[in-house]
Write a structure and sequence with these properties.
With 143 residues, this protein is α+β, with helices and mostly antiparallel strands. 20% of the residues lie in helices and 25% in strands. The chain has a domain at 32-76 and 85-131: Ribosomal protein L16/L10 (Aldehyde Oxidoreductase, domain 3).
């Protein structure tokens, strides 16, 4: 007698295959923010080139960015199977949908938008630009 085994893993086992959140949780530490619209694994080189593009366009050093902390190893081309794990090749950042990638302060809005545009060109993920709303934050007390 065979029983049907339930499929526990409905989706792919990759880190990036997470469902989209119902609504984004905005942090708003700084004035301008660049948020991811879709999940992705971003290399440290792409993050660094986007960071440099923002700094060059906005002339600011006050910047927060996501860190690439997942190491990826790769064996040398032409090497045979076995003989241990390969050498460290690069680092990745696991970015979920709705997670902040960059946040920074800038005095000029046109410079900030130009920096965001240049950073978006360098990143392999769809992004959303957010400007911190002026005024007080509403705190909900009625639950």
């Amino acid at each position: 007698m065979h029983f049907k085994v339930p499929n526990v893993f409905l989706c792919c086992h990759r880190r990036t295959r997470t469902p989209l959140p119902l609504r984004y949780q905005y942090v708003d530490r700084y004035q301008y923010g660049l948020y991811a619209k879709q999940p992705a694994l971003i290399k440290d080189a792409a993050l660094e080139s986007a960071r440099l593009a923002i700094i060059r366009a906005t002339k600011t050093k006050d910047l927060f960015m996501v860190t690439a902390d997942i190491p990826v190893t790769r064996k040398a081309v032409g090497s045979r199977m076995g003989k241990g794990k390969g050498k460290l090749d690069h680092y990745l950042a696991n970015v979920m949908a709705g997670k902040v990638i960059f946040e920074f302060n800038c005095d000029n809005e046109t410079q900030a938008m130009e920096g965001m545009k240049q950073a978006t060109y360098k990143l392999p993920v769809c992004t959303q630009v957010r400007i911190k709303p002026s005024g007080k934050k509403e705190i909900w007390m009625d639950f």
